[in-house]
Amino acid sequence: KLPRLAVQPVITAELVRGRVHLKCSYGAHSAGPPAQYRVLWSRLSSPGKREQVHHQSTPQSFSYVEMDGVKLRLGDTVFCTVTAFRRGTPEQQSRPEDSQGFYAGIKFLPESLEIAEDGKEHVLTVLSTVPIACPGQDDSCKITLQLSTEELGKSSQAPGPPDIALSACQLDLLPEPCSGSSCAAATVTVTAVTDFTQDGNRVSRISARPVTPRDVLWRAYTPRDVKVTVRDLPTGNCYSFTDPHIITFDGWRYDSYKIGTFLLCRSESRAFEVHVRQWDCGGHRFATACNCGIAAR
């Protein structure tokens, strides 16, 4: 009877002597004579193609490999494939069992956002799937990420205002015990900028860059961007101009020749209103009022 694995291989991340290692756990099967395990580590080198980076034969129910920044780097998706066999009969092997792909680096949750120009804040979680090492004795035990936004497809000669706003420009990832796929996490809120123009749905991206990390593993790493689709919402306009002609939000037109301070518009759903002051602007034959002041809340 061929040996087999107790559980499907699972990859987690750990700090071993201050350096980031990946651990493949697969559980030894207790029935029968003791088994040996052949563990093959690989990384996704291109879509659908893996590159072998390390292999090991061990009687243990786990295997470690170091993320050295050369064979395994941040940004890699890593797999371990495990085969069991009995001592003395290496030709009688179990079926190879594959782990799920483990992405080593920074993840954004959700991985993409669809938001609208409605002023709502959307929480974006930034987490590290690998533990944060502490190379020094000072406050260097963290990874600082610089956040930036960019609208895709916008001309660099006329960039205009951004389409999304972040609640912070920098985030600190502080080390904490790994739980699931998270070894450090922080949050930032994303809001669509209300621009009062009908410019269609637009796509922006949020980028994160580690700021002068002391750990060599992080120096050449650029996390994946987050795609943010901003859904355009129709906006209304009203006008008061010259002596004053008024056009309302729903297109009504009339004139107001009176002198005084008036309520021009008020929102029924939020704290927003506009007052206008109209004053005599010098008609000899006819009384004429013009806008001379405005107050908005």
Structure keywords:
297 residues; mainly beta; Immunoglobulin-like; six-stranded antiparallel beta sheet; 1% helix; 50% strand; rod-shaped
Secondary-structure blueprint of this entry?
Elements: E1 10-16, E2 19-25, E3 35-46, E4 49-58, E5 62-66, E6 77-86, E7 89-93, E8 97-98, E9 102-103, E10 106-109, E11 112-116, E12 122-128, E13 143-151, E14 164-166, E15 170-173, E16 184-192, E17 202-210, H1 216-219, E18 226-231, E19 239-241, E20 245-247, E21 253-255, E22 260-266, E23 273-280, E24 289-296
Parallel strand pairs: 11-18
Antiparallel strand pairs: 1-2, 2-5, 3-4, 3-6, 6-7, 6-8, 6-9, 10-12, 12-16, 13-15, 13-17, 14-16, 17-18, 19-20, 20-21, 22-23, 23-24
Domain VWFD: 236-297
GO molecular function, one term: signaling receptor binding
Protein name: VWDE protein
Describe the structure.
With 297 residues, the chain is mainly beta. It folds into three domains: 100 residues, Immunoglobulins (Immunoglobulin-like, Sandwich); 126 residues, Immunoglobulins (Immunoglobulin-like), CATH 2.60.40.10; 58 residues, no CATH class. 1% of the residues lie in helices and 50% in strands. It contains one helix and 24 strands. The strands form six sheets. Strands 3, 4, 6, 7, 8 and 9 form a six-stranded antiparallel beta sheet that branches. A five-stranded mixed beta sheet has the order 11-18-17-13-15, with no helix packed on it. A four-stranded antiparallel beta sheet has the order 10-12-16-14, with no helix packed on it. The termini are far apart.
